[in-house]
Design goal:
single chain; 780 residues; alpha+beta; 14-stranded mixed beta sheet
Length: 780
């Protein structure tokens, strides 16, 4: 109670640090429990295709359609199997259209995976006309889960409508699940794939889906793996572009984490980026260390005022162990108060975390025995770490020296200086990271991807007739500058296949576009020509390539060069465009090859406008779509949303590090203020003598501040280096193309540090430097 201000500051600071640790713990738990809801997860495997190309093995989370039926009928060691295939259909109830988030699965699906049913029976999955929906979907469609059972809705795909019955409602799976969908989800029998996708045949080895198998006897897993291998030939005979080296069995229990690490292409959700999880936990621990260091310095400062109390306790018979227990107990009690505050603040920080991570991660506070054990561990860790040094250091003093007044205690020493330096170094890591990510956001916002991403909108159509009808409706809008058609395009359904030139073979992105596509997407032609309208020759053999593809094959003069595609199709280069970042800023830019298709192959419509008008044009396209295709949900996609995702992620990280940096800096300057105050108290008579002997205010200020300036300089160097390394590691784990923190970042962060520190202690130092020396030198 005699040190209320210092204690309140430390309780509040430590409370925030503990709340950060709670968020870090929940994030780690979220990641470690990914797919833990499924009780059979240890016995479930995904059949993945391992492809070998250019001596590199790549895993794909797919298997050919027929393999699922073969496994179900002939593999006796497999106790259950299910294919998993996403639908592009919608649900319609009355005049309202809803995104269905529908997936087609086999009847064993609900037996293999754990879904908590509110109503209905999973056995009805055998019925083609039955649908099973999640609680959120039931509320959207029928306002309550109970009201949904046995009701009917209309499934809409293409121009077809089909009545289906709601046969069951299940509780929403947690977000850390491979099958999670944020707006609810639905499942239907796999046989419905043939109705929606009429070109797909059950025996077509070119078509793929996700295939899961359940093997109850784990000793038979290797046998099942061996039984799968002969079917590689079925695939390889018809897929020259996709030669399977092996069919692998991926354990479902750790599948999401491997997909994250190996960037496996799959229809299921991968676990969140490891950098987001581990980075948050590490920063939380660093903030906790700052709080502990601050409490240590505060405990030392408070103890310096209790020296006579300690001396009297020793004279009265207190053992050193008792004093150690007392001091650590007092510190632990302060940490306990901080723990209570941290638990209260955790709910607020969790909401902030969820807002920053958007739809990527969503954690919820829950207090399990493991969490309570974690809290006890945090309490003991902080109490012992913060209290040990003052307890062991002060308890060893000789009571005679204390009571005679000969003991000089207070000010700074190597230990307190080290703690203060570490505090500011850790603070700088957050500040450098925040400024670095802000700079990176501006850099990536203006990054040239090689095409007009900011003014383009794409929508999908089913055929040439729909394309023509919709295009004519859109021509009414004067804000639309250009319209083109395509079968596949940038950021949309592109292929990635091998091509050959003489002995050299490489994989490239392939898009199939129609007339006016280069102009509409603002692809910059730097050599050769565009495709000729309605040209059969261009359709059969002409291609336009990117600079990177020309460089890959070593072509200085690429025009007229010949490549082979699918081992037999000869293609001639007629044009070269500026490099295009087909994967945005997230992954390495791929070489790209552009082919020409006629309008009868169009499956999408591409619209360009000025970047300022893209939102209004998209709204207009939505309106015209609803009038043109009243039974289908608008599927338009603003390409610049890719940049918005990058920007949102950058700013989320900026907000997170800014928050941590502010907290760390507040704790650090509190420690600095404490040490400066103690140092001044210890040197008051020295300062008075210096003033009498003619020392100036500047000289006094220099004497008081010099050691702290050195501490800040060392902390700036250490913290800036660590911040540069840390932010670079985080950025490189998220993006391929970014601007890392640089010297400007370091200068800004270090300048901010010094300004805050000067503002914190400046008035205190100035007051002492201008004080009348008589007040410090008199004894009475």
């Amino acid at each position: 109670m005699k040190n209320k201000v210092f204690i309140i500051i430390n309780v509040f600071g430590m409370g925030i640090a503990i709340a950060c640790c709670i968020v870090g713990y929940l994030a780690l738990e979220y990641d470690s429990d990914f797919d833990a809801i499924h009780k059979n997860s240890e016995h479930i495997y995904r059949v993945s295709a391992v492809r070998k190309f250019e001596n590199k093995l790549t895993k794909f989370g797919y298997a050919a359609f027929p393999l699922g039926e073969i496994v179900e009928k002939t593999f006796t060691d497999v106790n259950g199997s299910s294919r998993y295939f996403r639908s592009h259909s919608n649900f319609k109830k009355g005049d309202d259209l809803f995104a269905s988030n529908l997936s087609y699965v086999d009847p064993d699906f609900f037996g293999m995976f754990t879904f908590d049913f509110i109503s209905g029976s999973p056995s009805n999955l055998k019925d083609k006309t039955s649908a099973f929906i999640s609680e959120n979907m039931a509320v959207r469609l029928f306002r309550s889960p109970e009201a949904a059972l046995d009701k009917t809705v209309t499934q809409v795909y293409g121009t077809e409508l089909k009545e289906i019955k709601i046969a069951g409602v299940f509780r929403e799976p947690p977000m850390n699940s491979s099958f999670y969908k944020d707006e609810g989800q639905a499942f239907m029998n796999f046989e419905n794939v043939k109705d929606e996708y009429k070109t797909i045949k059950a025996d077509d080895w070119k078509e793929e889906s996700t295939l899961f198998v359940q093997i109850n006897d784990l000793q038979r897993v290797q046998t099942v793996h061996q039984q799968l291998q002969p079917y590689k030939e079925n695939n390889n005979k018809v897929r020259n572009d996709f030669q399977v080296n092996e069919f692998a069995l991926d354990p479902f229990s750790s599948m999401a984490h491997r997909d994250r690490a190996e960037e496996v292409r799959a229809e299921t959700w991968a676990a969140p980026p490891l950098s987001a999880i581990v980075g948050s936990a590490i920063m939380a621990v660093l903030i906790l260390l700052i709080a502990c260091f601050n409490l240590t310095n505060t405990a030392i400062a408070i103890s310096s005022r209790r020296l006579k109390e300690i001396g009297i306790r020793k004279v009265m018979g207190s053992m050193r162990a008792q004093l150690i227990i007392q001091f650590i107990g007092e510190t632990t009690f302060i940490c306990f108060l901080s723990l209570l505050m941290g638990v209260c603040l955790a709910d607020v920080l969790v909401e902030g975390w969820n807002l920053m991570t958007a739809n990527n991660i969503h954690i919820t506070p829950h207090y399990t025995p493991a969490f309570l054990l974690f809290m006890v561990g945090v309490l003991l860790f902080t109490g012992v770490l913060a209290g040990s040094y003052p307890a062991f250091y002060i308890s060893k003093f000789n009571p005679v020296n204390i009571l005679k007044g000969k003991l000089q205690f207070g000010g700074t020493n190597y230990f307190t200086r080290t703690l203060l330096g570490l505090q500011f170094a850790i603070s700088l890591i957050s500040i450098v990271s925040a400024i670095g990510f802000l700079q990176n956001a501006n850099y990536q916002r203006e990054y040239d991807l090689g095409f007009d991403i900011r003014g383009s909108v794409i929508a999908w159509v089913n055929n040439q007739s729909e394309f023509t009808t919709y295009r004519n409706a859109l021509l009414e809008n004067p804000e639309i500058l250009s319209i083109a058609g395509a079968q596949s395009g940038i950021f949309s359904s592109r292929a990635h296949e091998p091509v050959k030139h003489e002995a050299l073979q490489a994989e490239v992105d392939i898009i199939d576009v129609g007339d006016n596509y280069l102009k509409t997407m603002d692809l910059k032609l730097i050599a050769g020509r565009d495709f000729i309208k309605d040209s059969e020759t261009d359709q059969k053999e002409s291609i336009i390539i990117t600079q990177k593809m020309a460089t890959l094959f070593g072509w200085d003069q690429p025009l007229g060069k010949e490549v082979k595609w699918k081992d037999s199709v000869k293609l001639i280069v007629v044009g070269v465009v500026k490099d295009v970042y087909t994967l945005g800023l997230w992954r390495e830019m791929e070489p790209m090859m552009i082919r020409y298709v006629l309008p009868d192959k169009y499956s999408q419509i591409v619209v360009s406008t000025k970047s300022d008008n893209v939102s209004s044009v998209n709204a207009f396209m939505n309106k015209q779509w609803n009038q043109t295709f009243p039974n289908r949900l608008y599927n338009g996609y603003i390409l610049s949303s890719q940049l918005q995702q990058v920007d949102q992620l950058n700013m989320s990280i900026v907000y997170g590090y800014t928050f941590l940096g502010v907290i760390a800096m507040l704790l650090s300057v509190t420690g600095l203020f404490s040490l400066v105050s103690l140092n001044i108290v210890k040197r008051m008579k020295e300062i008075g003598v210096r003033k009498i002997l003619g020392a100036s205010v500047f000289n006094i200020t220099q004497v008081i501040n010099m050691e702290f300036v050195i501490i800040l300089v060392v902390a700036s160097l250490l913290g800036s280096w660590a911040g540069l390394a840390w932010s670079t590691v985080i950025m490189s784990s998220i993006w391929k193309y970014y601007q890392g923190a640089n010297i400007i970042t370091v200068i800004l962060a270090s300048s901010l540090l010094f300004i805050i520190c000067i503002a914190t202690i400046g008035f205190k130092v100035f007051a002492v430097a201008t004080m009348n020396p008589v007040k410090t030198l008199r004894d009475e």
